[in-house]
Amino acid sequence: MPTISRDEVAHLARLARLAVTDAELDLFAGQLDGIIQAVAKVGEVAAEDVPPTSHSVPLTNVFRADEITPSLPREDALAAAPAAEDGRFRVPRILGEA
């Protein structure tokens, strides 16, 4: 038995402001019904002893520690720049602001 009716699909299409033909209503009703049934199966498998998670594989932080290290002196960095002004890189204007 389908879990979503053709009328419900038409209602969803109206809410989403989608122009849907009669043939598409039948097609989408079948597709949405398949999706709803697949999600329901996942809900059946998820038991109370399985903790909720956002990833199937545990993730670890891959960022390095935030440590201060010696860097290129400002003057040396600006010396290689095509243009510099007031101790900063000068770049072409990208917005039309004055």
What descriptors fit this protein?
2 strands, two-stranded antiparallel sheet, mainly alpha, single chain, about 100 residues, about 40% helix
SSE blueprint and pairings:
Layout: H1 6-15, H2 22-45, H3 74-79, E1 84-85, E2 88-89
Antiparallel strand pairs: 1-2
Low-confidence stretches: none
| Order of helix and strand elements from N to C terminus | HHHEE
Number of helical elements: 3
* Count of extended strands: 2
Mean pLDDT value: 88
Strand order of the largest sheet: 1-2
What global shape is seen? Answer: elongated
Structural class determined from secondary elements? mainly alpha
Strand content: under 5%
Biggest sheet record: 2 strands, antiparallel
Quote the distance from N terminus to C terminus.
Answer: 65 Å
Structure description:
It is a single chain. The protein is mainly alpha-helical. The chain is built from three helices and two strands; from the N terminus they run αααββ. It has helices spanning 6-15, 22-45, 74-79, and strands at 84-85, 88-89. It has a two-stranded antiparallel sheet. Helix 1 (6-15) crosses helix 2.
Task: Give a short summary of the structure.
The chain has three helices and two strands. The chain has 98 residues and is mainly alpha-helical. Strand 1 (84-85) and strand 2 form a beta hairpin.
